[in-house]
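Researcher: Here's my situation. A collaborator sent me these components and asked whether they could plausibly form a single complex. I don't have experimental data yet, so a predicted model of the whole assembly would be a useful starting point for our discussion.
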Amino acid sequence: MQLNLLLYLNEENFVSRVEPGSFHQDLLVLSDKAGDTYYYEQESGALSATSPRRRMTISSKMSKREYFQFLEFLKTQDHQEDKPFYFVDHFDDTRGQFIFTSSKKEGKLSVPFRQFVPRFAGNKPLKPVFDEFKGAFQEQNKHLPKFIIPFRAIEW
Amino acid sequence: METLRKIKEFQQLVAPFTLRVNERRNTLEVQAPNPPQLYEEIQQLGFENSDYSGDDVVWKCI
C-alpha cells in the first residue's frame, strides 16, 4: 500500500506546519496525547478519527482549511482595473497582507494574514459563516458587498 | 477508514519504540534496535515502501 499522505506527528505539529496547499492531498495527524489518530480525505473532505468523540478537537484546527479558502476568495476580490467596485484594495501574497480602504479618505486597514493565524473555537464550524459571506458576492445580490464593513468581515 | 485502521495497527505495532515524523521526507520513522521481526510485521500490514538504515537503526515505515 503506497500512502500518499501528508504526515503530522501530533496536533501541534499539524498547526505549525499546515499550509494552504496541504489540503490538496490526504492528511494524517497522529496524536501523542490521547493516542488518537486523525485522517483527512481530500477527495471527500471527510475527517475520520479513531475516537469520534475527540474529533471536534482536531476539527477546529482543520478550520485552517476554511481560513485558507477564505483568503483565496479575498484574493479574487482584489482591485481590478476594469471593475468600478472592488472589495479588497490590495492583496499582497508576498508580504502576507491585504488592505481594505474605507469610504473615508484616511480609512485604510492593513490585515497581516501570514504572521497571525487566528485560533478558532472548536465548537463553531467556520464553513457556514464563510459560505454566507461569499454568498453576498453572488450576482443576484448585486450591491450587497458594498455594504459589508470589512472590519466586521474579519471579526469572526 | 481502511487507511485509518491500518495506521492504528501500525501504531500499536511500534508502540514500544520511538515514532517520529521526518518532515523533509514526509515519512514516518521508527527508531528501534534492529528488529527484523518488526520490519516483517510492518510489511505484512501492507506498507510496501518500507525501508531502513542499519547505521542509525531508523526504520522508515511509511
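Model: Some features of this prediction you could bring to your collaborator: Chain A touches chain B at residues 1-3, 5-9, 13, 17, 26, 28, 30, 35, 37, 39, 48-50 (CB under 8 Å). The first strand of chain A starts at residue 5 and ends at 8.
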